[in-house]
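ugh ok fine here u go
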Amino acid sequence: MNVTTKIIQVFDPAMCCTSGVCGPEVDPKLVQFAADLDWLKGAGVLVQRHNLSQNPAAFVANQLVSAALAEKGEPALPLLLVDGRVAVAGRYPDRAELADLAKLKGVAVTVLANSSCGCSGNC
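structure:
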């Protein structure tokens, strides 16, 4: 396995919890994305995730994120930065795209069905 990316930063729209995997109606895309980020971390990629409702200072402090929000508003979110550059805006990438963004070589990107939301029964 070869990881060349230093960091992936995720700037999420305002959600009830850090991953969005909470509340009475959990979006399956958020469940899969949370699992995909854990997978990236397991592959050695440094991942930072910021939620607009819980960490607005991170959005203000980053010039690229601030500019995207000023230009497009909340539709610019989620926003993913890879090594400080905008890589994806307005959508969550799938595992294969994340692997490509992280420049993972020789790592299987199989997505396993996940029946659990990962919120420890607090859904």
